[in-house]
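Deliverable D2.4 — example input (structure tokens):
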């Protein structure tokens, strides 16, 4: 039976860099807290099981999607849908910045980051392979869900492609440090603008989960936020570890997309023709 509303939550945590065992313990604690508060879908930040600035530690923390630690996390999730970040080893030496979703003891979805940033203090293309697919999942009836990891949302084509599936929910796990791009570029302000725009333009509830860890000279600033389908922020974290939650409703998505029918009016055949003209296809 379709759920008309969903209680969603974000676990804004400070992962210990490279300490998967300690981070699993933290995940399990937040899952328990979220369950006690009635959360039905819980989102952790990008690379929440490992921390972000791994570099040469990538080899030590990479896991296959059927790893025993991830199986333990899946069992703990129970009927809650839990979305978490980890380094996936798909084949020997093939690593992805990945976000998994588990429910009822099973991995029900896996998204591999598509847009690997390689500018400022970011060098993900040095360590990871690029994901090659953008596929939604439906953890609850009526709640088709897409996941885009951090810089995926800064390639405007990727949120648009995701929204062509008409999802009811968009998950945005990120690792954003205040000055990792440049001294002039404000990541906190940039993420506010980005998530406000996507949520309002497409009429989609959006969860942005950031880390609040300190890794060397990088301070991840937190500020995780839950947006409703009208682009309103209904819950926001500060700079410390926290569990935030809110209720999102299909009725709001229905009304928001009636008022602003972005997906209906996108004219994607024309967009495709114009794109082919520019790339010579």
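Example output (designed residues):
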């Amino acid at each position: 039976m379709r759920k008309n509303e969903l209680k969603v939550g974000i676990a804004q945590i400070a992962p210990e860099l490279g300490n998967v065992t300690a981070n699993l313990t933290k995940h399990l604690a937040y899952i328990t807290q979220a369950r006690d508060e009635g959360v039905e879908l819980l989102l952790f930040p990008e690379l929440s099981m490992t921390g972000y600035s791994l570099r040469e530690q990538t080899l030590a923390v990479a896991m296959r999607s059927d790893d025993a630690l991830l199986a333990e996390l899946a069992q703990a999730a129970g009927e809650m849908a839990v979305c978490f970040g980890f380094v996936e080893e798909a084949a020997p030496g093939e690593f992805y910045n990945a976000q998994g979703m588990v429910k009822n003891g099973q991995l029900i979805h896996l998204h591999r980051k598509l847009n690997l940033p390689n500018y400022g203090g970011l060098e993900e293309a040095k360590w990871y392979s690029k994901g090659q697919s953008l596929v939604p999942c439906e953890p609850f009836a009526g709640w088709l869900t897409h996941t885009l990891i951090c810089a995926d949302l800064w390639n405007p084509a990727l949120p648009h492609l995701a929204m062509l599936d008409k999802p009811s929910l968009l998950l945005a796990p990120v690792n954003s440090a205040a000055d990792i791009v440049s001294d002039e570029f404000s990541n906190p302000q940039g993420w506010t603008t980005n998530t406000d725009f996507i949520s309002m333009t497409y009429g989609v509830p959006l969860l942005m989960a950031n880390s609040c860890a300190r890794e060397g000279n990088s301070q991840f600033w937190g500020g995780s936020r839950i947006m409703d389908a009208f682009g309103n922020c209904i819950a926001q974290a500060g700079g410390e570890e926290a569990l935030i939650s809110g209720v999102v409703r299909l009725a709001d998505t229905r009304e928001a997309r009636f008022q602003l029918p972005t997906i209906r009016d996108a004219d994607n055949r024309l967009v495709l023709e114009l794109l082919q003209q520019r790339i010579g296809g």
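The mean pLDDT is 95.
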